[in-house]
Amino acid sequence: MTDDDTPTPVEQLGYEQARDELAEIVTTLEHGGLDLDESLRLWERGEALATRCTHHLTGAREKIEAVLAQKESDDDTQD
């Protein structure tokens, strides 16, 4: 979150920031006691955060797979 309590846009969050905020939202929703509008707002933010986390993880997986494929290709050409 920013200094004025306005949530940071989800697109600007790194993986760890998005994951941590998502965990906070889940905890808040599990405890209940919120009105419907606040619960829906948090749910929607949580969905966006989960999508952001998935995006980060997919990008990391693709990078790892590319490195491994390149290493395998290099190993094949050295034989």
Which helices and strands, and how do they pair?
Blueprint: H1 15-31, H2 36-78
GO molecular function: exodeoxyribonuclease VII activity
Enzyme class: hydrolase
Function: Bidirectionally degrades single-stranded DNA into large acid-insoluble oligonucleotides, which are then degraded further into small acid-soluble oligonucleotides.
Identify the overall geometry: elongated
Structural class: mainly alpha
Give the biggest beta sheet: none
Share in β-strands: under 5%
Question: Would you tell me the overall average pLDDT?
Answer: 92
- CA radius of gyration is 19 Å
Helix-strand sequence: HH
Structure write-up:
The chain has 79 residues and is mainly α. The chain is 76% helix and 0% strand. The protein is built from two helices and no strands. It has helices at 15-31, 36-78. It is elongated. The protein starts with 14 loop residues before the first helix and ends with a helix. The mean pLDDT is 92.
In short:
The chain has 79 residues and is an all-alpha fold. It is built from two helices and no strands.
State the main characteristics.
Exonuc_VII_ssu_sf; exodeoxyribonuclease VII activity; 2 helices; EC 3.1.11.6; Exonuc_VII_S; nuclease; mainly alpha; 79 residues
